[in-house]
Automatic annotation (TrEMBL):
Name of the protein in its database record: Phospholipid-transporting ATPase
Keywords associated with the record: ATP-binding, Isopeptide bond, Magnesium, Membrane, Metal-binding, Nucleotide-binding, Translocase, Transmembrane, Transmembrane helix, Ubl conjugation
Pfam families: Cation_ATPase, PhoLip_ATPase_C, PhoLip_ATPase_N
Family: Belongs to the cation transport ATPase (P-type) (TC 3.A.3) family. Type IV subfamily.
Gene Ontology terms, MF aspect: ATP binding; ATP hydrolysis activity; ATPase-coupled intramembrane lipid transporter activity; magnesium ion binding
Organism from which the protein derives: Vitis rotundifolia
Length: 952
């Protein structure tokens, strides 16, 4: 199929250019002025040869996570070896053994030292070679590059230069930071997955400038020229400032046109982009830190002991040499038969002081075995064997991926047994990146009898408590039915037994049922068209239509199953569409101006495909916490369909739209207690005149020029999203990886503290906290956030004072808490954390965090993850462990005392930067509690036993 046909085929799916928000070229704002430091980068598009020499030469696209290279290996590795005090002493002793004062052959000193240092350097070389191989796998990936005359050819990533025009196809990673020029969609949009950067699985929409849309195939780049002036390389993933000069016009650039390295192209056949930042200048690599050389606590402790032994050695040698000098001066004349025939400079009875000095050197060498060089050899051998045991542990083998645990460095084996604080990523580390539609509330009635992982964990704990107490099940107090179903309102012992048994066994029962990804709903009242028999069937029908229409997803035909896969901007939307399909409302098609829904269970009994014309889309943002679509149905009626956070939706309900508010609120509270993510659904019917008047205001705001445009759009959108009528609410579960709650519980029992650092929003992180037992019911939450009123004030001082006041008040509240069993959880977002990590506030923040049982940091950047890890490591002085799976976790993995990478299916950046790698989070329990304990105990016992035997 030719490119033209592909492009024509995809035109109908480009609605999600979101033209109602897109900035037209004609309406472009005044470009940013690039004067002063921080904005010196100039890129000549399609002219990479210009950047091959100074002053416009930029770094290559080759990346390296190794500690050494061919030139630096010997000096750096030798330096690392002689950081050990014992090695440094034996080097000095070996040099002295070459002199005549040595009491024995120099070989006996040099050989052991050479063996120890050589063995350690060989181990370092092997481990770094493995990192090099992983780097080469990335650097030798192929990318399609414009070679000239409209011809594209493949080059390895490491040969890509700034200014190159790159063509990236579906499901490929971006090889560098690119400016999006055009895509397979007519309006130059594309979908990008940034899980490797910020941990989020939802797709991001990127849009090219309209002026570059004609660059739609290979041949159009023959004469393409342009100039980009932009900011210098920096680690900020969410900002970009620049100008694009093209055809004698200047256009402003923003983050929506930038495709970042290591993010993946999704749901788009291809895109064209020009390289802006390469290699270590790219934003993902700017967030990485240099691979550090880490040493275990026991090794540092041994150095301290070596200092003590060395001091003792010097004292003994001094006493011996002083005694020798005194004996030589006062007693040697009487011992004529012991006097040498020929005196030397090293021993002259007539010069006792000089003889004593030379004897001191001899004594230092002779008594040198007080410092055990063989101990280091033994430790190195033992550590290599321990690493082998870790690598071959069948209990840490993942059958799904075929990955095993890997000790990528053996220096830190025993340090695993000394971990105090674990800092963990969330997405891909604790969770499976899978949302399942579990329950819903429609017209005040709760539907869905399934149990969340939080409920399963609670039921299991109750069963354990019952067994420990030896009580009969009939004596156990009945807990509240979380489903609220009318048919489960049975009372008494029987109801309690049935409920507990259902919750505990439901997981096993699911294994025998057909599993639908994204759909774990169980309630016959809504399945198979039975919803039409419910008392509020008309409201249920509206609820399901909102699920099928109010979204920003694209359907993809799955030939294997004969249905559709959905590429959505958020995982929640994907689960909503799967649920709507299972209930009989299948989203099947999208065009430039409409969505099509195949409704299988309508009154006629035959499937009917209905078309809904999209008039406007009011997008979701973290500030709005809601999204809406305005549609016209086949009857010409206009509706606003809205979904969002319940607190936001409830504040916007009309007086006649609150019929189900009380019941829905009760259900939402129950869903929240079950650790589920919830959204409220509402609608409003619009008259033609009302919509026309509003749309006129909306278009006026959209086409305005100036810094107030976003505020105007928000004001107009806010006016429309009022007087809503509540329909119901959804509850979806973010699936945890297998065994995560149990692993966290065991680690907590072992006395380890867990911090979760995630790029997700606060609500999501809190829900996961409950699901994985990091947060528990009854735990008091301390949320440190920016006060919107304070944010509007000039300067940062007011904001910092407000945050400091929140931290101080929270610390005071913990100190004044009278309940000795009270537990606190600290939750803080990225913007607030930026101020909390300032030098004048970070230790107050750390003090508060240490007093809390759980800590969750939301919306944090990779750099902030590393800074938090450094603060905990340096502030507490205890061993820290960081665990993650993506490129956004590399900084904290390298910063922590121990770094653990999850060897998942998406990228290997975290593994490449880690000290240990495992396939699933649950294996961390065995790595720390079993191997960490064994390694530390055995190393300690080996040191004591060997030295006792050596001394004897």
């Amino acid at each position: 199929m030719t490119r033209g046909r592909i492009r024509a085929k995809l035109r109908q799916s480009h609605l999600y250019t979101f033209t109602c928000f897109r900035q037209d070229t004609a309406d472009a704002e005044v470009p940013h002025s690039f004067d002063g430091p921080g904005f010196s980068r100039i890129v000549y598009c399609n002219q990479p040869q210009v950047h091959s020499k100074k002053p416009l030469y930029y770094t290559s696209n080759n990346i390296s996570t190794t500690k050494y290279n061919i030139i630096t290996f010997l000096p750096k590795a030798i330096f690392e070896q002689f950081r050990r005090v014992a090695n440094l002493y034996f080097l000095l002793a070996a040099i002295l053994s070459l002199t005549p004062v040595a009491p024995f052959s120099a070989v006996s000193m040099i050989a052991p030292l050479a063996f120890v240092v050589g063995l350690s350097m060989a181990k370092e070389a092997l481990e770094d070679w493995r990192r090099f191989i992983q780097d080469m796998k990335v650097n030798t990936r192929k990318a399609s590059i414009h070679k000239g005359n409209g011809v594209f050819g493949f080059k390895p990533w490491q040969r890509i230069r700034v200014g190159d025009v790159v063509k990236v196809e579906k499901d490929q990673f971006f090889p560098a930071d690119l400016l999006l020029l055009s895509s397979s969609y007519d309006d130059g949009i594309c979908y990008v997955e940034t899980m490797n950067l910020d941990g989020e699985t939802n797709l991001k929409v990127k849009r090219s400038l309209e002026v570059t849309l004609p660059l739609e195939d290979d041949g159009t780049f023959n004469d393409f020229r342009g100039t980009i002036k932009c900011e210098d390389p920096n680690p900020s993933l969410y900002t970009f400032v620049g100008n694009f000069e093209y055809e004698r016009q200047v256009y402003p650039l923003d983050p929506s046109q930038i495709l970042l390295r290591d993010s993946k192209l999704r749901n788009t056949a291809y895109v064209y982009g020009v390289v802006i930042f390469t290699g270590h200048d790219s934003k993902v690599m700017q967030n990485a830190t240099q691979s550090p050389s880490k040493r275990s606590r026991i090794e540092r402790k041994m150095d301290q002991i070596i200092y003590i032994l060395f001091t003792l050695l010097v004292v003994i040698s001094l006493i011996s040499s002083i005694g020798f000098a005194v004996k030589t001066k006062y007693q040697m004349p009487d011992w004529w038969y012991l006097q040498p025939n020929n005196t030397t400079n090293f021993y002259n009875p007539k010069k006792p002081a000089l003889s004593g000095i030379f004897h001191l050197v001899t004594a230092l060498i002779l008594y040198g075995y007080l410092i055990p060089i063989s101990l280091y050899v033994s430790i190195e051998v033992v550590k290599v064997l321990q690493a082998t045991f870790i690598n071959q542990d069948i209990h840490m083998y993942d059958e799904e991926t075929g990955n095993t645990a890997q000790a990528r460095t053996s220096n830190l084996n025993e340090e695993l047994g000394q971990v105090d604080t674990i800092l963990s990523d969330k997405t891909g580390t604790l969770t499976c990146n899978q949302m399942d539609f579990l329950k819903c509330s429609i017209a005040g009635s709760a539907y869905g009898s399934g149990s969340s992982e939080v409920e399963l964990a609670a039921a299991k704990q109750m069963a354990i408590d019952l067994e420990e107490q030896g009580n009969e099940l009939s004596n156990f107090p009945m807990h509240k039915n979380s489903t609220g179903d009318s048919w489960n309102d049975a009372s008494g012992l029987g109801a309690t037994e049935i409920e507990l048994e259902t919750v505990v066994t439901s997981k096993d029962e699911k294994e025998h049922k057909h599993v639908i990804k994204g759909f774990s709903f169980e309630d016959i009242r809504l399945m198979g068209g039975n919803w039409s028999k419910e008392p509020n069937a008309d409201v249920i029908e509206l609820f399901l239509r909102i699920l099928a229409v109010c979204h920003t997803a694209i359907p993809e035909r799955n030939e294997e199953i004969g249905g559709f896969n959905y590429e959505a901007e958020s995982p929640d939307e994907g689960s909503f569409l799967v649920a709507a399909r299972e209930f009989g409302f299948e989203f099947c098609k999208r065009t430039h101006t409409s969505v099509h829904v195949r409704e299988r269970y309508v009154s006629s009994g035959q499937p009917v495909e209905r078309e809904y014309q999209i008039l406007n889309l009011l997008e979701f943002t973290s500030k709005r916490k809601r999204m809406s679509v305005i549609v016209r149905d086949e009857d010409g009626q206009i509706f606003l369909l809205c979904k969002g956070a319940d607190s936001i939706i409830f504040d916007r309900l009309a007086k006649n739209g609150r019929m189900y508010e009380e019941a829905t609120t009760r259900h939402l509270n129950e869903y929240g207690e079950s650790g589920l993510r919830t959204l409220a659904l509402a609608y409003k019917k619009l008259e033609e005149s009302e919509y026309s008047a509003w749309n006129s205001e909306f278009m006026k705001a959209k086409t305005s020029i100036g810094p107030d445009r976003d505020a105007m759009l928000e004001r107009v959108s806010d006016a429309m999203e009022r007087e809503l009528i509540l329909v119901g609410a959804t509850a979806v579960e973010d699936k945890l990886q297998k065994g995560v709650p149990q692993c966290i519980d065991k680690l907590a029992q072992a006395g380890l503290k867990l911090w979760v650092l995630t790029g997700d929003k606060m609500e999501t992180a809190i829900n996961i906290g409950f699901a994985c037992s990091l947060l528990r019911q009854g735990m008091k939450q301390i949320c440190i956030t920016l006060n919107p009123d304070v944010q509007t004030q000039d300067g940062k001082e007011a904001v910092k004072e407000n945050i400091l006041m929140q931290i101080t008040n929270a610390s005071q509240m913990i100190k004044l808490e009278k309940d000795p069993h009270a537990a606190f959880a600290l939750i803080i977002d990225g913007k607030t954390l930026e101020h909390a990590l300032a030098d004048d506030m970070k230790y107050q923040f750390l003090g508060l965090a240490v007093d809390c049982a759980s800590v969750i940091c939301c919306r944090v950047s990779p750099k902030q993850k590393a800074l938090v890890t450094r603060l905990v490591k340096e502030g507490t002085g205890k061993t820290t462990l960081a665990i993650g799976d993506g490129a956004n976790d590399v900084g904290m993995i390298q910063e922590a005392d121990i770094g653990v990478g999850i060897s998942g299916v998406e990228g290997m950046q975290a593994v490449m930067a880690s000290d240990f790698s495992i396939a699933q989070f649950r294996f961390l329990e065995r790595l720390l509690v079993v191997h960490g304990h064994w390694c530390y105990k055995r190393i300690a016992q080996m040191v004591i036993t060997k030295e006792c035997c050596f001394d004897v």
